[in-house]
Amino acid sequence: MTTRTRVELGRREDLGADCANCFGLCCVALAFTRSADFPFDKDAGDPCTNLDDADGCRIHPHLRERGFSGCTVFDCSGAGQKVSRHTFAGRSWRDDPETRRSMFATFPIVRRLHDLLRYLDEAITLVRASHDETPWVQAFEHVRLLSDGAPADLATLDVDAEYDRARPLLLEASAIARGRGPVGADGQRVGPGTDLVGADLRGADLRGATLRGSLAIAADLRGAWLDRCDLLGVDLRDADLRGTGLCGALFLTQMQVNAARGDAATVLPAGFQRPGHWSPTADATDGVTPPRRAPSGRAARSRRR
Ligand code: SF4
Question: pTM of this prediction?
Answer without folding.
Answer: 0.87
